[in-house]
Amino acid sequence: MTVSHILNPREIIDRRHVAALLDESARADVSAEVKRARLVEVIKTALKDGTAIIRARLEHGRANGTETVSAHSYLMDQLIRILFDSVTGHFMPSGVRTTGERLSIVALGGYGRGELAPLSDIDLLFLLPYKETPFSEQVVEFMLYVLWDLGLKVGQAVRSVTENIVQAKTDITIRTTLVDARWVWGDQDLVAELKARFQKEVVDGTGAQFVQAKLAERDARHQKLGDTRYRLEPNVKEDRGGLRDMHTLSWIAKYVYGTGDARKLADLGVIDGAAATQFVKAHEFLSAVRCHIHYIAGRPENRLTFDLQREIAPRLGYHDRAGATAVERFMKHYFLVEIG
Questions:
Q1: What percent of the chain has pLDDT over 70?
Q2: Measured between alpha carbons, how far is 85 from 43 in angstroms, rounded to an integer?
Q3: What CATH architecture does domain 207-339 belong to?
Q4: CATH classification of 3-203 is 3.30.460.10, yes or no?
């Protein structure tokens, strides 16, 4: 995900403006508690305003589903950067940091892929060079409490580069999260070291093993959910042909070919251009459906219930026609996309 993929990013959030507000607050002659409360207030307002703009773009047809989840990732990136800079610049003791106090913030999961659904968890890795220090412990704790005060659900891990590598060798879940790992802020050299070691010590020579494990996971999930293609109230994320199956293909492609981008895979000759176009369009559609579900439900729901089908159909441009209602037309398209 790059800023070039985000339409008018400064309309979503102006990081310099928000940071300037917090710098001004930090200079005020008030207690640390008051400054912290102001920090939460300013960031919460920026999150609310940015989210409203992103939602309006989708609902008014000015952004598709892929652009919407990318925009939510972009907004979260900016807020985390603002928070990190404010915490380390205004709330931690000043002084020269030692090499052991280096810290990097890494996005994982859907957030790491740049595909953050509106109300999904924010998965973060606080990456350290060695063991945790008092400085890094204080920064991580301060940041997490602020993120929780914002009403965000955060999945977090604090690990050194070596700890990530050791755990990734034996834990396929951690290995998969590192496939999607993306630097957000802090020490970039730490992330570069992690990625280099991950490729050399974990990925190289294990492609077949990884593919087998991810396909087995997929098959087990399909079996658990009944493996039905025409569920009347489908789960847009977990059902067969849904977003999780697309994620599985992306993880495999990244692991084996170094990219999960369908267009780039077509350029490499892994898939043909028609398949790449179909994948891109399916992702745009399913992401839009999932975003609408989150916005309407007000929670991280992924099931497309009958009530939601009626509400989402017109939002996606489906209307009653002779012989078919808006919902029927919407769901026919949904199942064609999901199965395709």
A1: 97
A2: 13
A3: Up-down Bundle (1.20)
A4: yes
